[in-house]
């Protein structure tokens, strides 16, 4: 007895046939779409490779073109395999193995193509971002070096105060207030000796004021030029060369500002102030006068040591200030810059990766549709997708087979014919 299909089975078969007709129509241009995506990725890969190859020439062009063609072919073949095989497998182990293969293939595509596509899309902007970041670093270093130099220059007030104290003491000694004996004797000469040393130090500190301001002004001019190079239109390679030259010049100015800082000079002078003392011969006419001079000189030396400690502490405060960072400009290629500053170019990275991995969405779509077709038809179904041409060919083949088979009714007659 022949079993007739139920209404649900009939509806499932119609549903499956409808999905199959859609897939058949989509298959007519899927390969073309894959080829277009692969070719577009190859073009951007070619542009990205050219940013890595410095030497212009026919061989460089040939190498970049060969690599981009290989990438395009690899992408097209890989996704063609995935579109055909992954939706067709039915077991979980086979599907898991192909999914793992697809994940590895996606990683390989990103490694050999997507980052170069991102370099072609946003490489110039990434290099400009690198230059802008470098300008900020140089600006911070220049301002810090200038602030330290100005802080060291402010030590001139401390030196002037100490020098004035020795000048006042020498005037008092000239009037006989300190040692009790008026005149310009040994005590007066010690005081004037230290006053002269401090005056020379003050003059040295005042002498660096103009060079500090000139170096700072020139550094700001170079910074403005570097900032302009980072944003102005034009070829990125030429701008990078000029930017490097300006960076070298600015590094020299920052070093000059660090050397003009008078704080180390004050620290050394304060140390010499107490250590290097030339004691004059006591010139008192009596023993009592010489004893008074000796006692006053010892007091003066103690005062000198105290003042030296004060200057040393002030100089150390300046030396303890944060030093300018070592701002060094390292030129980057577009491919390297787009990786270092990837966070600033997320849309470019998304576009570069999407153009390579978009067929993965098509693979999952076909997997879902194939699963729906199997669900609609069930497990036991025949192949009912014959076209009209295939049906005609099958009927013609059956007719030929019937013509070639001997007539079954003629065989008994041949066997029962009487002998002559």
- Please identify the structural class as seen in this structure: mainly alpha
Given as residue ranges, the uncertain stretches (5+ residues, pLDDT < 50) are 411-420
Largest sheet: none
Number of domains: 2
- First and last CA, distance: 52 Å
Shape: rod-shaped
**Can you give the mean pLDDT?**
79
Please state the CA-atom Rg, rounded to the nearest Å: 47 Å
In short:
With 420 residues, the chain is an all-alpha fold. The protein has 14 helices and no strands. The protein folds into two domains: 153 residues, no CATH class; 205 residues, Ferritin, CATH 1.20.1260.
Supply database-style keywords:
420 residues, mainly alpha, Ferritin, 14 helices, 79% helix, transmembrane helix, transmembrane, membrane
């Amino acid at each position: 007895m022949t079993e007739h299909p139920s209404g649900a089975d009939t509806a499932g078969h119609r549903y499956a046939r409808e999905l199959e007709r859609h897939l058949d129509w989509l298959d007519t241009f899927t390969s073309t779409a894959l080829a277009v995506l692969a070719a577009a990725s190859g073009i951007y890969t070619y542009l990205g490779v050219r940013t890595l190859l410095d030497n212009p020439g026919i061989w460089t062009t040939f190498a970049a073109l060969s690599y981009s063609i290989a990438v395009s072919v690899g992408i097209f073949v890989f996704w063609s395999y995935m579109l055909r095989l992954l939706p067709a497998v039915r077991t979980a182990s086979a599907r898991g193995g192909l999914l793992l293969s697809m994940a590895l293939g996606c990683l390989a595509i990103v490694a050999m193509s997507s980052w170069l596509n991102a370099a072609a899309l946003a490489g110039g902007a990434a290099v400009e971002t690198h230059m802008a970041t470098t300008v900020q670093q140089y600006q911070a270093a220049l301002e810090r070096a200038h602030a330290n130099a100005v802080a060291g220059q402010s030590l001139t007030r401390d030196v002037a105060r100490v020098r004035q104290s020795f000048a006042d003491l020498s005037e008092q000694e000239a009037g006989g207030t300190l040692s009790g004996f008026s005149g310009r004797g040994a005590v007066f000469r010690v005081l004037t000796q230290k006053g002269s040393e401090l005056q020379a130090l003050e003059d040295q500190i005042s002498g660096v004021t103009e060079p500090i301001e000139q170096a700072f002004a020139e550094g700001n001019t170079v910074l403005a030029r570097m900032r302009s190079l980072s944003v102005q239109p034009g070829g990125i390679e030429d701008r990078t060369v000029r930017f490097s030259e300006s960076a070298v010049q600015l590094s020299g100015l920052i070093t000059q500002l660090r050397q003009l800082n008078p704080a180390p000079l004050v620290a050394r002078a304060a140390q010499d102030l107490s250590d290097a003392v030339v004691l004059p011969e006591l010139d008192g006419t009596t023993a009592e006068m010489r004893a008074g001079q000796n006692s006053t000189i010892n007091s003066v030396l103690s005062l000198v040591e105290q003042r030296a400690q004060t200057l040393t502490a002030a100089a150390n405060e300046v030396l303890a200030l944060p030093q300018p960072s070592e701002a060094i400009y390292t030129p980057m290629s577009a491919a390297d810059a787009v990786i270092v500053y990837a966070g600033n170019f997320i849309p470019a990275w998304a576009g570069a990766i999407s153009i390579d991995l978009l067929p993965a969405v098509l693979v999952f779509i076909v997997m879902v549709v194939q699963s729906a077709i199997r669900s609609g038809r069930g497990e036991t179904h025949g192949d009912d997708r014959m076209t009209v041409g295939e049906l005609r060919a099958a009927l013609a083949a059956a007719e030929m087979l019937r013509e070639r088979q001997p007539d079954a009714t003629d065989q008994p007659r041949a066997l029962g014919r009487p002998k002559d």
